[in-house]
Design brief:
single chain, 503 residues, alpha/beta, 16 helices, 13 strands
Length: 503
């Protein structure tokens, strides 16, 4: 089962060597062994009590000759900020939403169920998708505790889709779903040594996803290979009348991205190198430069450097956008839960956290929430101007300008800093490396692929481009992945010293 791809599993189903029921049992056994005891990753916040029954239904369909597609009978995990209408809660890792049972599946969950996927459970995350405090520890939630990196256990899994990243890397599921506002798919995918796709905003519906920002939020697949991520992405797309951003995807979204899995996909491609997104660590930079060499040897034309200088200019504007949108969007989500919801608006969340601070805020506070609560509505000139500035700097004067100037198919950058030590006292450390905020703020697609490792810590490289260019990025990322073969299974090292006893 370890390192099996979705295609491997489907082949075993077809041969009669495996059933979905047995596969779910095997994942439950592994979750108990690795997540709950053993290394104790803390990646999974809740198990789906109906998973085996769903598996039985998928097995019966298969026996009758009906196979829905490549996800039929495949167990996946869902981040705990995505609504499921079943016997699981949706809490964003917060005790304030404990007991919340949404009346409907998120649109993307309904799509996955229709494709035959089995929801194995919910993954832990940085509480409220890492929008509670400036000093948070990625992967910690008051409901689920601290998620750990399966490669080196005292290192961060990054956030906020930390549980999804750690679970996929540790083979606790076939694949998982994460969400991103800025880095929350790409960084945990990199930190855990897997593939993550952050789609164009609007390709995947956000209805039923606990929000931060409607201008930046998106869900996306996290998997051990580009092929598996592509399979998952195709099952998630679709126009949703309740999420108007998806209307723009009508002529652009695909139901199948696997036709772009071309091992020769780098031939003739023009790739720009965002060198200002590379780490200051010379050994990590060498890994990334070796990756660029692999692209060139695979037939790509490399333009180096193609720096995105505006990334450093957008931070204040982006923060203002997130604060305004978080208040408005979270209030709308909580109102949609109805009168029986544990909390009904951001003000009540803040009050709950204050009342139960010993359990909710033992390590860090909620100053981001308090800042958001002080904001006015989305008609504010400060919000309108900040949104226009953030998008102009990252779109017209950022990624779009670079793609046009150099006639590029994509830009590459380091996916994020090396996983830092978990520090509940001081919170996340600042690390070198990573130029993936521009596509996040622009709402453009980005894919991270394993690039190598340093002292057992994964290094990732990201491909990004303009809106709706997922097919191009999948083609380039797959060709690089096949040439580099850099994915490594985790070894659950206690620390980096276990990688090199002399260190």
């Amino acid at each position: 089962m370890e390192e099996f791809s979705i295609s491997d599993l489907q082949e075993k189903f077809q041969k009669g060597d495996l059933t979905s029921h047995r596969l779910v049992e095997m994942y439950f056994e592994r979750i108990e062994e690795i997540d709950r005891s053993g290394p104790k990753l803390n990646a999974i916040i809740e198990i789906n009590p109906d998973a085996l029954a769903i598996a039985d239904a998928m097995d019966k369909e298969r026996q009758s000759g009906h196979v829905r597609g490549p996800l039929h009978g495949i167990p996946i995990l869902i981040k705990d900020n995505i609504n499921t209408h079943d016997r699981m809660m949706t809490t964003a890792g917060s005790l304030a939403l404990l007991g919340s049972m949404p009346a409907q599946d998120a649109f993307l969950v309904a799509r996955l169920r229709m494709a035959g996927a089995i929801l194995l459970g919910k993954t832990n995350l940085s509480e409220w998708a890492n929008f509670r405090s400036t000093r948070s520890s990625s992967g910690w939630s008051s409901r689920g505790g601290q998620t750990r990196n399966p490669h080196v256990l005292d290192r961060t899994p990054c956030g906020s889709s930390s549980g999804s990243g750690a679970a996929v890397a540790a083979n606790l599921c076939a694949a998982a779903i994460g969400t991103e506002t800025n880095g929350s798919i790409i960084c945990p995918s990199q930190a855990n040594g897997i593939v993550g796709i952050k789609p164009t905003v609007g390709l995947v519906s956000r209805t039923g996803v606990i929000p931060i920002s409607h201008s930046q939020d998106t869900a996306g697949p996290m998997a051990r290979s580009v092929a598996d991520a592509a399979i998952l992405l195709g099952a998630m797309t679709g126009v949703d009348a309740q999420d108007t951003a998806t209307l723009s995807s009508q002529e652009k979204a695909l139901l199948d991205y696997t036709s772009f899995l071309d091992a020769a996909g780098l031939q003739g491609a023009r790739i720009g190198v965002a060198r200002n997104g590379f780490s200051g660590n010379p050994r990590v930079v060498k890994i990334l430069e070796d990756c660029v060499d692999i692209m060139e040897k695979s037939g790509a034309e490399i333009i180096d450097p193609v720096n995105l200088e505006n990334e450093s200019k957008m931070w204040n504007a982006e923060l203002q956008v997130l604060l305004y949108e978080f208040k408005a969007d979270l209030n709308a989500y909580l109102a949609s839960l109805g009168s029986d919801a544990p909390v009904h608006n951001l003000a009540e969340v803040i009050a709950f956290n204050t009342q139960y601070s010993d359990r909710v805020m033992p390590y860090f506070d909620q100053e981001r929430m308090q800042q958001a609560q002080r904001k006015r509505d989305l008609s504010s000139k400060q919000y309108i101007n900040a949104l226009a500035r953030a998008q102009r700097l990252t779109r017209q004067e950022g990624i779009d300008a670079a793609l046009e100037k150099y006639q590029l198919d994509a830009i590459v950058s380091q996916s994020g800093p090396l996983p830092w030590l978990i520090d509940l006292v001081n919170g996340d450390a600042d690390g070198d490396g990573g130029g993936i905020s521009s596509p996040a703020v622009a709402g453009y697609p980005c894919i991270t692929v394993p690039a190598g490792s340093y002292f057992g810590l994964p290094v990732g490289i990201s491909f990004f481009a303009g809106a709706w260019q997922e097919a191009t990025l999948i083609r380039l990322a797959y060709a690089f992945e096949q040439a580099a073969q850099a994915r490594m299974a985790p070894r659950f090292l206690p620390s980096v010293h276990a990688e090199n006893p002399a260190a």
